[in-house]
Structure to design on (936 residues):
């Protein structure tokens, strides 16, 4: 094929994979999606990405950018078309500690950036289970969330500048390091979260933050989600907004964990309806200087807040981590969520968000509606509670796609009633196209299509994703 | 004229101003721009804005949206076309203190929102001199900055959702209250900062923050900007990032203030090269609980940091405000910047940004280049130093437009060398069109034009602004 030959001439034989070499790129972490790419391209520079896009554009051949293959919605499936892997663009070009920025290529693995920032006493505060494989380009293209959004925002909030290769190969330089820049339209944010449908992100300027000097971490049992919100607000007040994570694990999750991982010690002697994992981070020296009784202030603030809530019977139990090992144990329980949630079938999984004060209402309403669809349903609802973001999962009693769709629609009905979103942090990809079609504001969809057509008139960038 | 009649039928006679009634809309706060609008329209609802846009679109008649007339770059000039004033859409629809959001129409005056938030113990942390007239719609359309960007970000960072009327009258509902929402392209940020060229913002969901319980405010004299940066970093570390404002006033500003406002007490017995106004905000109760010596911790942290710097001779003098009156006096000195800067002519004023650690280099390089253009030049450089954002102003010795342009080009040269921006917080409007043409990445300009054409194919929304 002429195009493949031309690509080989540009990138070198070794960087244009076909056949069996390409086949291992034909799946992602979910195991739900698989495909046969025409070829896999592995450019090493923005110039090479540009050359690839020029050739593909001329040929009208679709190109699907891919990073660490950790997407959850099939956003990188590429049947019979080109895959453009950013894995070789994996340089951390520069870390400037005083300016608190990292300049990276998009194939840098998230955990590598964590390590590099840490060497300067700084942190890149984007944190989730797949950090050992997920790449910065994919994080940006999906506007990834995770467990620290509460304090630091999602990937969008952590990006100051971008380099993007457009559908026809033009390279756009938006590599600003500035915190204030009003020179025309905000193009950067158009490409963040566009899942590779508007351009290929090749490099970025990312914000770093001071690495907390200490964490105070606790497991808490609460009578209901209302008290959980009171706890969140009191902790934010006491610490001046230093809550880094506020994660909810329901009874069903803790029970299932006991089955899947009997080796893990449960946090409490009994299982509660509402188990929370709470973490506060201290960046100021005064917060980690031990007081007369040896307690560091950040831990004292957490303990005092929890003690007050216990006394008022607004929480039922609490345990504060007294070592890094205990803290890791707490995080480990939370990070098993994907594995544990996906260990039962059939399932209908979601990634929804509602306003913070509407989480309890959502749960109440959906539990009132599901019995009419499937009286035997069960649920699991691990949530980034501090963001109103739930990975609400339903286990229906039969593996019927019509039933699954009805359950999904019922969830979306309640989410929309509460002015929430059917897609909070994982993006749209393929799997949420039906939700986009039926739930997104129709004018917003028209505007998205107009933007897509303006930037990719031949429709070659990751076609069939995001926009129904 | 048929169009005017149709508009009167939609909005009512009283809300379509022409002649002398319209004339008073033909200028802005700068006094530099004036124009004669064909008519001024004052719709009261998004539906009426939609009706206006449908009629204008059908007629191919340009429409210039306007809020509080406080723009500094001529972004609302509208010779012979329609002006669409949002001033009657001035309702704060809802404040939900628990969710920390305000839902407002775009004609709400910024200071009114400040007052409304304060009644709930909250703050809308966008703060600048024109807050008594500037309206939320204009703040959003220009992505306004100001004195608290350091802690809270610019207007973009404070907006969760928007309602936008498009060029042809379609109403787009992006009124999300969510902190996580990845349902397709980030359209919201495309309209923020677009200066009314892509759509008319009619309502917004805005973030509120806890109002600091106390402020610690100080005037500081430093030997140079390098020590100023050390001070900023030490204060951020000591307070865990609670610095709300970090403002630079040069010797030339303090000297001119003594002339323009002899009634004002100067902060120090002598005038220094580098005068800073520093403010730290305390949101946690522990920061405002007096210690054994009666000092509240937030003030103690500021005083200790300043004392340490004095001892090391890294600052020359410092005075901490001991009353709200003294704090107001400090702010008043800073807020005279626009008046004092504009009180001398001829002048070349700018709104530039460079990376935080490059401010001193900028000043050094520009002072090395200007003498070749005008040996007698003087400068004034009041700056949001914590953001790297300078309102660098040059006073040339002659009122020669060619000289003014050369000075502007020299400033832009240095700014671009340092990877800065020629437009930091005031937007582009008319006055920065030449800079957009010669300085913006050409591919970025092409993409902006493609987006503009996609969303406003007839080019009726605020034509001739932002894009050269």
């Amino acid at each position: 094929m002429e195009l493949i030959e031309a690509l080989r001439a540009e990138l070198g034989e070794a960087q244009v994979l076909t056949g069996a070499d390409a086949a291992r790129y034909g799946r992602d972490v979910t195991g739900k999606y698989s495909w046969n790419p025409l070829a896999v391209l592995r450019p090493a520079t923005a110039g090479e990405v540009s050359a690839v896009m020029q050739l593909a554009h001329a040929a009208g051949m679709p190109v699907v950018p891919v990073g660490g293959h950790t997407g959850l919605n099939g956003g990188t499936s590429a049947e019979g078309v080109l895959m453009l892997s950013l894995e070789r663009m994996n340089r951390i070009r520069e870390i400037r500690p005083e300016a608190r920025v990292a300049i990276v290529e998009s194939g840098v693995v998230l955990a590598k950036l964590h390590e590099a920032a840490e060497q300067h006493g700084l942190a890149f505060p984007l944190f989730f289970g797949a950090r050992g494989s997920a790449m910065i380009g994919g994080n940006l293209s999906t506007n990834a969330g995770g467990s620290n959004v509460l304090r630091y925002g999602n990937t969008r909030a952590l990006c100051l500048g971008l380099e993007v290769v457009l559908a026809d190969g033009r390279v756009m330089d938006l590599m600003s390091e500035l915190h204030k820049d009003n020179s025309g339209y905000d193009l950067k944010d158009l490409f963040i979260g566009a899942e590779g449908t508007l351009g290929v992100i090749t490099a970025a300027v990312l914000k770093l933050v001071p690495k907390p000097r200490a964490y105070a971490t606790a497991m808490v049992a609460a009578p209901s989600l209302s008290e959980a919100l009171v706890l969140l607000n009191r902790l934010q007040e006491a610490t001046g907004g230093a809550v880094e994570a506020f994660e909810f694990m329901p009874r069903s999750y803790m029970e299932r964990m006991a089955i899947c991982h009997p080796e893990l010690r449960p946090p409490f002697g009994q299982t509660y309806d509402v188990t929370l994992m709470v973490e506060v981070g201290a960046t100021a020296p005064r917060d980690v200087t031990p007081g007369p009784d040896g307690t560091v202030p950040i831990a004292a603030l957490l303990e005092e807040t929890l003690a007050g809530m216990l006394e008022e019977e607004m929480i039922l139990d609490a345990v504060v981590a007294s070592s890094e090992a205990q803290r890791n144990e707490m995080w480990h329980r939370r990070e098993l969520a994907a594995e544990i949630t996906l260990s039962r079938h059939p399932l209908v999984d979601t990634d929804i968000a509602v306003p913070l004060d509407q989480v309890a209402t959502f749960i109440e309403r959906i539990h009132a509606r599901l019995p009419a669809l499937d009286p035997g349903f069960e649920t699991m609802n691990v949530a980034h509670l501090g963001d109103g973001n739930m990975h609400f999962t339903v286990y229906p009693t039969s593996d019927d796609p019509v039933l699954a769709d009805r359950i999904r629609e019922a969830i979306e009905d309640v989410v929309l009633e509460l002015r929430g979103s059917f897609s909070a942090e994982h993006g749209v990809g393929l799997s949420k196209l039906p939700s986009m079609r039926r739930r997104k504001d129709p004018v917003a969809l028209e505007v998205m299509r107009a933007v897509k057509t303006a930037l990719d008139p031949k429709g070659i960038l990751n076609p069939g994703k995001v926009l129904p």
